[in-house]
Design goal:
Elements (H helix, E strand, L loop, with lengths): L2 H12 L5 H27 L2 H8 L5 H35 L1 H29 L6 H12 L1 H31 L1 H15 L2 H5 L9 H18 L3 H16 L1
Helix pairs in contact: 1-7, 2-4, 2-7, 4-7, 5-10, 5-11, 6-7, 7-8, 7-11, 8-10, 10-11
């Protein structure tokens, strides 16, 4: 799909013009809810002895539980309220060429699986004892709150992250340079999945970015090849479902 077609698709789906600034602010607020607000709320709660006592009765860290609710559930509600119409129209676009688009999405899914397998072998070769802190964190929460976290990984996170990365970053960058849009978005997507550990001082986790790059590129190409924002969401859901239950 050409840059011109991407522009036309955007104009059709979300009526750019007087709404351009509103959607930009909605995207920025999505980032705020997804990355910053959970930390702000956690800091405020940590100052309340009553709140700490309440969460201490649970079998999971109050910080983790609160982060899940704020980061995923509240952000998802906000995203649907702001971008729901756009996502629905993307589904309509996707279904206009349903079988070709499903075929392209499945092909990219398989390519991502092969790429992830190769990346895993490279990571093991470079650091045989290396563990993925992000995956370990998800597994730990799944053991305590399986249904709660399964909804996050298979539905909420894919929708929120696609709005942040493919809609808010890849889409505008693609208009200027498709190659740069693919590379930059993939690297940023991969880094976000390890940044918690990296900012905590575990710099060796940077090597795990390799594990996320194949699916990151597949998600961008899914949007480009189908012309529908629904394709990367669908692919992301399938990928996370496989990772969660596979």
């Amino acid at each position: 799909m050409s840059k011109k077609e991407i522009k036309v698709l955007d104009q059709v789906n979300i009526r750019y013009g007087p709404f351009e600034k509103w959607y930009t602010w909605a995207w920025l607020l999505t980032i705020f809810f997804y990355f910053l607000f959970p930390n702000i709320v956690s800091i405020v709660i940590s100052l309340s002895p009553t709140a700490i006592a309440l969460f201490s009765n649970l079998n999971i860290s109050w910080y983790i539980l609160l982060s899940i609710v704020v980061q995923y559930y509240i952000t998802f509600i906000f995203v649907i309220a702001c971008f729901g119409k756009y996502i629905w129209r993307s589904i309509v676009v996707f279904h206009k060429k349903f079988f070709p688009n499903i075929g392209k999405t499945f092909l990219l899914y398989v390519a991502a699986l092969i790429g992830a397998n190769i990346a895993g072998r490279i990571i093991y070769f470079l650091s045989p004892r290396q563990e993925n802190s992000n995956e370990n964190s998800i597994d730990n929460i799944m053991s305590v709150l399986p249904v709660f976290m399964a909804i996050v990984t298979t539905v909420l996170a894919p929708v929120c992250e696609e709005v942040i990365f493919r809609w808010g970053i890849f889409r505008p960058l693609y208009r200027r340079s498709p190659a740069f849009a693919h590379i930059f978005t993939a690297l940023l997507f991969a880094f976000v999945h390890v940044m918690g550990a990296v900012f905590g001082g575990d710099y060796i986790q940077l090597i795990n970015m390799l594990a996320y790059l194949p699916v990151a590129f597949a998600l961008s190409f899914a949007y480009e090849w189908t012309g529908s924002f629904w394709a990367p969401i669908l692919l992301h859901m399938a990928w996370n479902t496989m990772a969660t239950f596979g």
